[in-house]
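A favour, since you know our structure tokens better than I do. Go ahead and set the record down below.
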Amino acid sequence: MADQDFFFALDVSGDPEFDQMLAEVARTVLGQVGYAASAIDALTGQLRAALADRVDGGQRRCDVRFEARNGQLQIVVAGAGRPEWRTTWPLPSA
């Protein structure tokens, strides 16, 4: 799947029960793209930290976007009133 562009977005609340669900969604998306387990762990950890930062800052809703384009995967976390968090990783080779 790494050679195909896609866009996947979620609007999530900052409630703790959604933390595990979002981690599983992220692991599934990243696994389907073809990342190795170590990259999935690293990206999921970064994503969870970005969400925790927004919840600690009082934001209860966040937008999470996964976008693959031009050989890159970008993950963005946005919460009202907070700067966006983003990371970009090269897509794994097919």
Notes: The CA atoms of residues 30 and 40 lie 6 Å apart. Helices lie at 17-33, 37-56. The mean pLDDT is 83.
